[in-house]
Design brief:
- The chain starts with a strand and ends with a helix.
- It folds into two domains: 165 residues, Alpha/beta knot (3-Layer(aba) Sandwich); 61 residues, no CATH class.
- 47% of the residues lie in helices and 14% in strands.
- By secondary structure, the protein is an alpha/beta fold.
- The strands form two sheets. The chain has a six-stranded parallel β-sheet.
- α5 crosses α7.
- The chain is built from ten helices and eight strands.
- β1, α1 and β2 form a beta-alpha-beta unit.
């Protein structure tokens, strides 16, 4: 199964840090990363209850880029989902859909929770392979960060016992595949004004598919041969 790292991006309230740590303990998660956090104090530990060691062992990073180092698969969370397939940045998975794709995956997976007031910025969402949104009432769809965490962690915990063939994911391989895709767009003179959105679309397709190593290498071969053919 994946090794999950829970990343809180610039949390503003120390109680939320403790509440997330408690939920992590409930569902067997241990690795917490805090990006430029508020003070970690008494309220944090009071809310953490029996998960104080998760708070004590939390890694502190100055920026989000540092927190993503070494991850094979990056997952964002957002309270906003797009109803259009053309809005790739916020065309998201439900927690259950995401959990089902993680079964059998051997990888370092980071799950990022955004700021309590602004969530994750668009440039941060672009770094993610996929994004999770929890279905909720349109009148008030934004959940508290610890409530969101509990739903996502529950889905991961409940499905992890369902075995599938082991799969491996590599950030390096996925990045190389994205490079090939961008090169192919250039080779076919794809319209410049459409490149950015199309690249995000392809990144999201890869993120939702969670391809195996063999599937990645097959696509790499197809792209390589295509590039050679169009370059003649």
């Amino acid at each position: 199964m994946p090794n999950y790292k829970v990343i809180l991006a610039e949390p503003k309230f120390q109680g939320n840090i403790g509440a997330v740590a408690r939920v992590m303990k409930n569902f067997g998660l241990k690795d917490l990363i805090l990006v430029n956090p508020c003070e970690v104090g008494d309220e944090t530990y009071q809310r953490a209850m029996h998960a104080k060691e998760i708070v004590d062992n939390a890694e502190i990073c100055k920026n989000l880029d540092d927190s993503l180092d070494g991850l094979d698969y990056i997952v964002g969370t957002s309270g906003i989902d797009s109803k259009s397939d053309k809005k790739h940045l916020r065309n998201n998975l439900s927690p259950k859909e995401f959990a089902s794709k993680m079964v059998g995956l051997e990888a370092e997976v980071g799950i990022i929770f955004g700021r309590e007031d602004y969530g994750l910025y668009n440039d941060e969402l672009k770094r993610c392979d996929t994004v999770i949104t929890i279905p909720a009432s349109g009148e008030y769809p934004i959940l508290n960060i610890s409530h969101s965490a509990s739903i996502i962690f529950y889905e991961l915990f409940s499905i992890q016992s369902k075995g599938r063939q082991k799969r491996e994911a590599s950030r390096f391989e996925r990045d190389k595949l994205m490079e090939h895709f961008v090169e192919l767009l250039d080779a076919v003179n794809y319209p410049e004004h459409k490149k950015k959105n199309t690249t995000v679309m392809f990144q999201r397709i890869l993120g939702r598919a969670v391809l195996s190593k063999w599937e990645f290498h097959t696509l790499m071969g197809v792209f390589s041969k295509t590039l050679k053919a169009v370059s003649r």
